[in-house]
């Protein structure tokens, strides 16, 4: 039985030269590179769900030891995949993901020259896959518009009778952006307020699963707002300033309840500042989180 023929070198191409005279002689040399695929290996496998059913259309991703992306492919109708040729290496990471499923990862592996490595996956359903997101951006009414940082964004769910229930609170970042995650289908109202601005309310309807609802809000400067400021220093129990601490400004209502109206962070000296604060009674709350 005849063997399989493989190219020992990569197909090369020389530079162009012309024969323009009768009897002319020219020289065309070419340096061929070894065929790197001769040492390449193969990575293959299947992707199934927890019931043993194949998952077609799943993405298989391979990264190096520093998680730089190297290659990807998609499973076929039977949930199978193959990545070949693939260069040998001491450490690779491989992942699988499909719509509606959690990201799955296999243990890191090495690939030897001409080796075939099988990597099979079992994907678990993502319980939050059908939930939705409201993502927004808050700008002022100047020309050009500027992002409103530290605005309070309240999310209310509206029932069939029109009753509103506060379900989440967040704050805009330095780009005026905010998000609310893990939302069910339904009707919502986003209420936004910022120091020195007239509050706005925007209705949002989430009618389908896995929706990303976009909210663009413009805050108009409140001509009645005072130009007061509130500032201070956040310290620990040893009177050492705390840098990068979160500081929330609350308005004290007539009944003694507290309404958050702005948020900021301290500088390296523990100093914070709120500007364009209307007349009224206020308190602050502050803390600092760490990652452990």
Automatic annotation (TrEMBL):
Indicate yes or no for the key word Ubl conjugation: no
Q: Which UniProt keywords apply?
A: Carboxypeptidase, Hydrolase, Protease, Signal
Does the keyword Protease feature in the UniProt annotation? yes
Pfam families annotated for this entry?
A: CarboxypepD_reg
GO MF, one example: carboxypeptidase activity
- PANTHER family recorded: CARBOXYPEPTIDASE REGULATORY REGION-CONTAINING
What is the name of the protein in this document? Answer: Carboxypeptidase regulatory-like domain-containing protein
From the broadest rank down, the organism's phylogenetic lineage runs: Bacteria, Bacillati, Bacillota, Clostridia, Eubacteriales
